Amino acid sequence: MSSDERPTRPEPPDLAEEERRLAAFLAGQSALVLAVVPDEESLPEIGSLPFVQHDDAFWVLASELAAHTRPLLQRGVARVALMADQSATRNPFARERAHWAARVEVVDRKDERFAGITAALQKRHGKTVELLCGLGDFHLLGLRPGAGRYVNGFGSAFELDGLTVCQQRRR
After folding, report:
1. Exposed/middle/buried for 15, CB within 10 Å: 0-12, 13-18, 19+?
2. Which of 64, 96, 116, 162 is at 20 to 30 A from 141, Cα to Cα?
3. What is the DSSP letter of 156?
4. What residues pair up with 164 in beta bridges, in sequence order?
């Protein structure tokens, strides 16, 4: 085999471009899915919450009446996932998605950040946010993404550190 007959390796992905794709994907999402484990003897609880992305976190209003909220408050960790709308996905096996381990940050109503973050939530999700902020069982929580993965097609999976695309995932 001559040198000009050698198979060529595919070009490595442009991580900056993948990060732009991830940012555009996140901007198009309105709700996240989260999973929490209440304790070592319980099955995971799963929830879905509208969010706003602000200050490198996903911000949600969560009610104490929801099964997933108490573990968020008590344990301070969760798994967070965002998935493309399946009606816009040609092949469900290649569905665009991202998920992370996340650290939970609670913002008290007296915290100066509360008004700004809830205003961003209201701008994105409407007047219901104002109503929820007036209910005592709702908490403003920031889900700060850590290690994760972003998939945007077959053979196109990337390791994440927060919202930064670090490297392509190989096997």
Report:
1. middle
2. 96
3. -
4. 161
End-to-end CA distance of the chain: 29
* Res 3: pLDDT: 54
Residue for token pair 């927060």: 162
* Cα–Cα dist 94/136, whole Å: 41
- DSSP 8-state secondary structure symbol assigned to residue 90: S
Residue stretches of the chain with pLDDT short of 70:
1-10, 170-171
How does DSSP assign the chain, residue by residue?
A: --GGGSPPPPPPP-HHHHHHHHHHHHHT--EEEEEE-SSTTSPPEEEEEE-EEETTEEEEEEETTSTTHHHHHHH-EEEEEEE--GGG-S-GGG--EEEEEEEEEEE-TTSHHHHHHHHHHHHHH-THHHHHHTSTTEEEEEEEEEEEEEE-STT-EEEEETTEEEEE---
Among residues 76, 140, 85, which one has the least CA distance to residue 114? 140
The pLDDT tens digits of the residues spanning 121-132 come to 999 998 998 888
